[in-house]
Amino acid sequence: MRKNYKKILSFATSTAAFVSMTFASIFAFPEQKAQAAAALYQPPAAFETTASPETSSKSGNRYEFEYANCYEQNGQNRIENSTFPGYSGSGYLYLESGWGEVSFSVATSGNYRITIVTNADSYKENFLYLDENSAGTLRTSGNKWEAFTQTVYLTAGEHKYGVSADWGYTALDYVVVEPEKISSTSGMYVRNGRLYDADGKEFLMRGINVAHAWYPNETQTSINAIADRGANCVRVVLADGTQWTKTQRAEVENIISWCEARNLICILEVHDHTGFDDVGRLNNAVNYWLEIKDLINAHKKYVILNIANEWLGTWNNAHSWTSAYQSALRTLRDAGIENVIMIDTSGYGQETSTCISNSQQVVSADSTGNTMISIHMYSVAGKDAATVKNSIDSMLATGVCFCIGEFGNWQNGADVDETTIMQQCTEKGVGYIAWSWNGNSGIDLSLDIAKDWQGSSLTEWGDYVFYADGIGIRDTSRPAY
Predict the structure, then answer these.
(1) Do 243 and 380 have their domain in common?
(2) Fewer Cβ within 10 Å of end Cβ, the chain: N or C?
């Protein structure tokens, strides 16, 4: 949300392993049936290999398909080395139909990164499987060797990983299995689609948005009042100077200290770029964080970095959202920022289709894996029960960590189904942060949660957020530490 601003929305409207996803359809694997999962898709990158002789199916943690010789013998599938140069080992498995797989073992249970390298003469889609379960969709763009990587949980022992043909006609070179590199930081982190505090406990956001950039003199009072009511986090509006007066380092330091004193997780966001499509504006926000990276790193136990509020207002522009945030993530991580990072989806935070389809690609750009997505649910994404349920279930199916970073009970003259939002978040273990404590005006006035900064009394909306039976903050909030 934005003070005195009416949002204009364009309505384009484990047998031995647990893979971080839920299943969406049914398809056949060799000697098995399993549900096909929503794809854990990472954008394929050109992957160059050098042909070299091998004497077994395994070299280190690399498993060559041509030596495994484990594929459906249907007269069409074959080991070859003529069509696609630049392969590893002595050749590759050319899969026209049926299935092909490699076997491997791991000594200890834990999270592993599995990478499969493939090629094809044109774009192809086929099914991946891990043991008896779906492992998503393998997309091969064609005419180059490409690596597709996903993170899975494996128990100690034997496993198999392979491809079941959908379109077929795909060259399978090899599979690499390696332990996931876990960040050694002492801050909050994301694993398997969930947010954890620095002590390793899952953290479920139950919080309130605070409008610091517009009312800086009221922030400490607001934070204390919100903590008194039982919230476990606040999301705080900052400004990088592009549109509003820049929030100075000393202010940020105070905000963090006030939150830590009340044991509140502090989500900091830059609000200047709400609804703008210019990548340069997103980069302004990135640069703001780089200026204070030592400060927020020092408080990564409490601070989550929400790059920019609702950047990219237009709908049906998923490519821009994906590529811009991939770049932003790489810049922030390359600069050494260690905090959990939060990214708002497009369409003023309400275009859920973009994050459902592309969030895996975005979060895969984070070398630490500590990125989550934020959806804002108002009169579009939160308009009715069916829409809310579908969006939350679909996001859960991606395996990506996410929260409802803003929501209200009304917006732009239209109703919002706040009850279903809070119910679904409670039932499905999703965080929510309501908009906003105080200071709204004009058309957004009804979104005030408190009638004054001290929170001496709440509005009807605020009373519901905090005290709705079984789903409000009072009944569902648990502190991080």
Answers:
(1) yes
(2) C
Nearest to 421 by CA among 435, 407, 410: 407
Structural domain span for residue 55: 17-179
**What per-residue confidence (pLDDT) applies to 118?**
96
Residue 116 carries which side chain, given as an amino acid letter? I
User: Of 66, 218, 269, 310, which residue is the catalytic one?
Assistant: 310
Both 234 and 256 in one domain: the answer is: yes
β 62-64/58-59 pair status: antiparallel
In the residue annotation, 351 being an active-site residue is answered as no
CB of 378 closer than 8 Å to CB of 339: no
User: pLDDT per residue over 160-205, tens digit each?
Assistant: 999 999 999 999 999 999 987 655 458 999 998 999 999 889 999 9
Residue 147 and residue 50 share a domain: yes
- For residue 122, the tally of other CB atoms under 10 A from its CB is 10
Q: What size, in residues, is the chain?
A: 481
pLDDT reported for residue 442: 94
* CB half-sphere exposure, 428, CA atoms < 13 A: 26
- Among candidate residues 127, 149, 179, the one where a domain is terminated: 179
| CA–CA dist 4, 441 (Å, integer) | 6
| Residue 406 annotated in active site | yes
Catalytic hit among 146, 338, 406, 418 = 406
Lowest-confidence segment of 70-79, 82-91, 226-235, 281-290 by average pLDDT: 70-79
**Tokens 């392993």 -> residue:** 17
Residues 164 and 299 in one domain: no
Q: Determine the residue type at 159.
A: H
Split at pLDDT 50, 70, 90, the class of 23 is: very low
pLDDT mean over 402-425:
97
Q: 320-334: per-residue pLDDT in tens?
A: 999 999 999 999 999
pLDDT > 70? residue 36: no
CB 312 within 8 A of CB 324: yes
Listed in sequence order, the residues at least 6 apart from 433 whose beta carbon sits closer than 8 Å to its beta carbon are 205, 206, 207, 208, 209, 233, 234, 235, 267, 403, 404, 405, 406, 407
